[in-house]
Recover the amino acids of this structure.
DNA sequence: ATGACCGTCTCAGACGGA
């Protein structure tokens, strides 16, 4: 099974690149973030023409998440509810079961600045995710929670510790909250399992100042995979080619191949 | 080259992003 997570930074603006992803990589499941689309404007027909259907949480101008899957795979029990989510109206969480796996696509609150009201809501959202992951573990369901967590889990996941020090995404509290999700949910950071602790690879680069070409980025997009599934991780790849070319997102897709 | 972005909304500029 092939699973891809991608913060598209507007689904409608990114449709040509989404088509490129679907046709060239033929994923079974795609977790999207920052679709920035209203429910009425969600491109169901365009995706159907590409052989995919979707469960979505769409909030209009900001945020928005979705789960796409091949038309021949059923989407079961979709929900946008996340108990304890401090901003339930902002379309940052969607879950559905596909092929016996409980998938969630998440776009974690940015946090703005350390100490900002939004920063504390970010920590709350990460805590809500940990509680949900613990519930799913207790149910014994295979789980894949993927998306833009807006946290660099380790020092090596940020291009410059000096530049990023004292800012969001790298604070000890954010990192602790991220690892609590793995711990409480019995989940594995698939990228780390595949590449180890000493490999530096990024999933996001600022549009400005040529950061992509200088490889000044962050690893903030992840696949969190339940331990039973994680033994079947065949490969994890960052699709940098989709960060290049015409009208790219500022994030690259993260591809996960499972043997099942 | 010593500066450098790109979406959303509503219509030139604010706002969000990380």
């Amino acid at each position: 099974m092939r699973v891809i997570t991608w913060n598209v930074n507007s689904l409608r603006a990114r449709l040509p690149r989404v088509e490129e992803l679907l046709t060239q990589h033929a994923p079974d499941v795609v977790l999207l973030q920052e679709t920035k689309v209203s429910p009425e404007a969600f491109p169901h027909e365009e995706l159907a023409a590409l052989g995919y259907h979707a469960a979505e949480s769409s909030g209009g101008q900001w945020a928005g998440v979705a789960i796409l899957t091949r038309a021949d795979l059923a989407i079961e029990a979709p929900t946008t509810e996340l108990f304890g989510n401090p901003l339930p109206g902002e379309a940052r969480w969607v879950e559905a079961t596909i092929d016996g796996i409980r998938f969630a696509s998440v776009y974690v609150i940015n946090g703005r600045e350390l100490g900002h009201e939004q920063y504390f809501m970010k920590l709350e959202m990460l805590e809500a995710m940990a509680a949900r992951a613990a519930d799913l573990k207790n149910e014994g369901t295979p789980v894949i929670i993927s998306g833009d967590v807006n946290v660099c889990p380790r020092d090596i996941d940020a291009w410059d510790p000096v530049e990023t020090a004292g800012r969001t995404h790298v604070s000890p509290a954010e990192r602790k909250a991220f690892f609590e999700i793995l711990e409480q949910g019995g989940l594995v950071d698939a990228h780390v399992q595949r590449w180890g602790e000493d490999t530096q690879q990024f999933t996001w680069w600022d549009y400005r100042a040529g950061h992509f070409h200088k490889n000044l980025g962050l690893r903030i997009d992840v696949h969190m995979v339940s331990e039973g599934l994680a033994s079947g991780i065949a490969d994890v790849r960052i699709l940098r080619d989709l960060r290049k070319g015409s009208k790219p997102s500022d994030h690259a897709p993260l591809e996960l191949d499972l043997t099942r």
